[in-house]
User: Fold these one by one.
Assistant:
Number 1:
Amino acid sequence: MVFGCSILPLPREQVLIYKTVDMAKLRMDVFNPPNHKSTDKSPCILFFHGGGWTGGKLDQLYPHARYLSSRGMVAIGVEYRVEATHRTTPLECVKDAKSAFRWVRKNAEQLGIDPEKVVGCGASAGAHIVAVAGSTDGLDEEGEDTTISARPDAMVLFNPVLSTGTNGYGYDRVKDYWKEISPIHNISEKTPPTVLFFGTEDQHIPVDLVKKYKKLMEEKGVRCDLHFYEGQPHGFFNYWKNDGKYYYKILLEIDKFLASLGYIEGEPTLKKITNNK
């Protein structure tokens, strides 16, 4: 038995360049909902892959993107600079994430997107840069129009780096500015509603830290849904892991979370399917 979704073969609709910096042309892969038009005002979700700010695959979360596009959202995979390809630091990763949210809002009318319903979704380091965009002012690319918000309206985060402090992840790489890009140290009333997914055996982010993050969010009056999966390590949510078992479970929770915010409607359409390919 494999868990999945019949929408998976859906091709991307567009490949767009959202930013050119230091000779790098950074792209977005766009998956539009069925019968989508530029005159629509659809909710949007941006996906940022994992890879420890060093590498990673742009299409890591495309199975998730394709499903949510089938549910009426414009789903966009975002390329951002990483150390292996661009010789950059985690700070540039954050800047690119913020640029992406701004670019989508700036071009919302042409893309058929509601600029007030832009969700950020990421895995690991990708989830970290979404969380930073959701909680931290500043850290902007030079010359950008900062009157356009770079803050997601909601966040869907798969085992994000929550602390870059001395007891967190990656401190040695970010020690000159660690507090600025540490999500748990920048929670405020402006941090958007969030859903978190973690395995209890995550080797990078301890369970106690995750629980503390949720507690601090709720103390600020911010919704923070938390789902733990017993015995699962970092990266367990990927489509190709565990025959797609957790991909399926997690997508159902994402569907419910986004529906509760009014971003999608109706019952989840994801079903368990047998796939012998």
Number 2:
Amino acid sequence: MSAQPVTEQGRQTRRRIVAAATSVVAEKGALGASLDEVGARAAVSRSQLYHYFDDKTDLLRAVADATTDAVLAGQNELFAGLDSWEGLERWADTLVELQAKRGGRGGCPVANLVGQLGERDDDIRAVLASGFDRWEASLRAGLAAMVGAGELRPGTDVDWLAACTLASLQGGLVLPPARRDPRALRRALDGALALIAAHRPTC
């Protein structure tokens, strides 16, 4: 794995290359992304690409890292509100609305990379797995806060609920691209919310 640049200009160039590569991968898939196209979009030469990255696999690891960070950063505000039932519903509704705007296209960018690269490179798989761990941890923290606030019963297994919620989300993101129907995500998240609701106080 290549070392990080020591100068700000170098770091900016590297970020530009990663952004260009992420865009190409999102459009053409990881295996269809060429270094020539990445270089053209980033306005860098092939020699510059190899200055910042050892090879294409090294660049794809950086893409996996950047993609994971972007997906999670896009939910930071929603994660911060997961300490209440209303915040949990807002998180689910926002993800469903995003899928509806996309017409059911795209799925989960992180899961897409797992399918394309996870079985080919253990380092990339580890980066993506870490992203899912961070995603689940954010859900777990929100559910734990709901227990602390009395919105869920004491003793609720928040580890299990967080894992089930993430699994429901990922399953719900697989079907819309196949069916071009974002309602699959709505159903999946409604199921997760119903499971969580079963742990709310009864009075």
Number 3:
Amino acid sequence: MYLSRRNDLKVHTFVEDLLNFEPSRKFPGSGENGVIGICVEPKSGNVIASLVYEDKGAIKNKVIRIKSKNGLEASSSETIIDNIPSVRAAHQIQAITIGFDGKLYVNVGDGMVSETVQDDDDLRGKILRMNLDGSIPKDNPNSGSFIFAKGFRNPFGAAWRKSNKSLYISDNGPLSDDRLAKVEAGKNYGWPKSIRQNSIFWWQLTQAPTAIDFSQSGEFPGKFNDQLFVNLFGGVYAQGRSVKGKKMVKIQLDENDKVVSYDEFVTYIGNGPASPCGLSFGPGGLYFSDLFGENGKGSIYKIKAR
């Protein structure tokens, strides 16, 4: 289900029943399936979403476009791409974004089958690039292929940096090494041999980086401009403060993607499970979601900076 609202402060159901199965809501594990990524086509206002679905007992990924006549509720939907193998856990389809080139970029996890990642005939473990109608752009790295870059394990978050018009992603590693990477056409990012290949930054102690976004549209004061904000999810259901996750960090990159500074921007100090997941700059500040919250209930917060 997606909700919408307008300036009368009323909340409306925009679309529901997108899944053809009932999620278990168990974390970690099968509760991580469902409707995952979302973005909006700038010109049409159509909503594009990534999700997991069942097909005769098989678990698959797909991307759909949802149209609305009034902006408050869906009027129709259509499939952009589907039939990508998935798994009843994480490592599924993740963030979807529209680049400065007007193309749709889709993060796809390895489905917990690492040998598929280097297979150019398999879309798992890849960043896909396509036209908004789901067709393959003629200028993709390999003619006739959706694959823009490969070698990813669980590429969760994605954000575009205005200063160099490039795509950056967060990628969850195995028992050690999570990373950030700038995604470039045709590059191989190493998984399953390495999670560090072509990375710009990594955490040796896994932090489970989730959503990311750049401060670049005036929502924060100028001193924060072009800095990258990253949510670190941490251990699921871990109580209280933790060395693994439960925080948001701020990373300053120079023009060559070298880390100039790394600071904790928001740190959880309560006693609950608390795991920051979604993150996005929007009207008046930075918004982020906490999947579990102080009392085991999800919450959305807004940060204003001075």
